[in-house]
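Problem 12. The chain below contains 677 residues. Write out its predicted structure in token notation.
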Amino acid sequence: MNPLKCAKFALAASIALAATNAQATPTPLPTDSFAKIPAIQSVTMSADGKRLVAIIAAPGSNNGDTALANWDMDKLGSGPTSITPSGDRMKFIAASALKAGKTLVIGRQEFTGQLSGCGEGNSTGATKTFLTKAYLTDPSQTKFDEAFADNTRKLGVSEQTQRCLELAGSASLVHSLPLDPEKVIISQMNELTLSANYYLFNLATGKTELLFRGGTRASPGLFHPRNGELLTRSQIEPLGSNDYEQQILIKNKDNGQFDKHDALTTKLSDRYTMEVAGIDDATGKLYILTDKFSDQVQAWQYDPATKTFDKEPLAAHPQYPIGGLIIGTRPSNFNQVLGFYVDGPRREAVYVDPQMKALSDSLKQAYPGQYVAITGYNDDLSRVLYTTSSASKPTSYFVLTDKKSVTSLGSERPWMDSNQIGEQRWITYTARDGRKIPAILDLPAGWKEGDAALPALVHPHGGPWARDYTGWDASGWVPYFTSRGYAVVRPQYRGSTGFGRDHWIAGDKQWGLTMQDDNDDAAAWLVSQGIAAKDRIAIFGYSYGGFAAAAATVRTPSPFQCAIAGAPVTDLARLGVSWSENRLQRILQGQTVKGMDPMQHTASAGIPVLLYVGDRDVRTPAFHARGFYNAVQGKVAAKFELIPDMPHSMPWYPRHYQATLPLMESFLRSDCGPNGL
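Solution.
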């Protein structure tokens, strides 16, 4: 019997949540606890277990800047063998240990000027933004070369286009090809067509070999993990005037041609998930992640020879989607399915491989009440990199050596007092139309049922095609406010992904309408449970969550005393489909961005509102927040702050947290409703 099919029945329907030991009275955690650069982050180990790389706080910077660190695993206890601080402009934000002694590091810097037609924000005029680039270096970290770039001048390419691609970056890592000692798969922008080509890239020599020439409608799918051979590709074709068909074509091993498979072809408007996740070496069957047969995404096997799916899923869960397969990358388990991920309250790894399951189970037993994730290992498991975290404890990094000795690399934020953060719960409430809405509830330390009702925040996530997970909130917003005595509820409103296709599609064209009802109904639930005082509830969101806060400002009657809109969209008419660089995303989501437009209803503004946005935000440019502020300031108490040098997406720099966290706290205390929150 297939062990994966057995595992789906053995998996518990409920996933344990971490809770902290409560303390009688929470003490506000300082802004600096969240603003400081993490002591360590982005930790990876090379596949052979010989090197470790990470981004650390630069020595002497008082956690104000980042540095790239490299460890020799044979001398792990002696600390990094090399540390390279970020430059004055280019700041390291992520790193990865590759093979052939190479490290891939991502850097980011401010840029002001014309992007000349490429890059996010190119249509907003003279652009203040950030540029992100990838670099390759070796363990000495003395030389950094732009990763995978082809810097030769191309005939027929204008200087403007060439400059544009130099600024915005033109190449990225696609697949690591674990068994090959030197080669990886990269994508590289074709300057003539502005579409991506895919190459085998030799890390040792820098030589390339073309694998796939991209186009406007075609993209590669599955590369064989052993040799990089392209096995599948996707193609978008028009289907009538307003729809498209997404085809998955599979390479015919007899003639080398790519054949269309109707069983894998879907209409974009139907929004079925259809992802090729791997191939079974023994049978040639493909692993497919799809919700075609269930409201939740399941893992199936598909036989290209017979063009049929198996009769039963490979892995499934009754409540939550299968978020991916865990496929072996080391010689001893290469390309074997070791387990799968269940995207429940948080992403949970379920191992079916006996060796990996035993390792995972033993680590979980060693850290009760925490989430443990295996993030790297060598072939004989003599060196294993893993992390621990919980709702009250930021991520910590460890190395298990010879299955018995543990070396702590440290916590991202070792200064954080977890006793001040409180308790986290996974809850479900019923919206006014009967839909069940999942949510995460965070409570201040020491509060229990029967205590006095709390001030509270309804905190919808961004996206909206996204979701929240339980565990440590990397933004810092939730623990910042729970340590100040607030209850925080994060509704997974309709339109959120990860809770079934029906829940996702229910948000179509419902911006500010039933999606907003779900946020209002979260406030009503807090009151009904005795958690929140009816006159002490605010709404705070960022990006799409900022839209929800702006919408709450003009919807009447409102359950909220005030709203905080971070980097909001407020003008749906001006949003259009220009907000995404991804053409498929624009086609898919652009048709669903409809509903109640806050800018068309500013005359109905009824509660105080704080709007803030970074002046380097090109995803939701400042005109959204500023325009809304100008329209409502004479009707309600309104504030607008333009944050210097802040981009839309994290990671932010310490000064961005220092500007925004006290700003929000002060507004809630002093300007939210008649008496503040």
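Discussion. The chain is about 15% helix and 35% strand. Students who got a different answer should revisit the alignment rule from Section 12.3.
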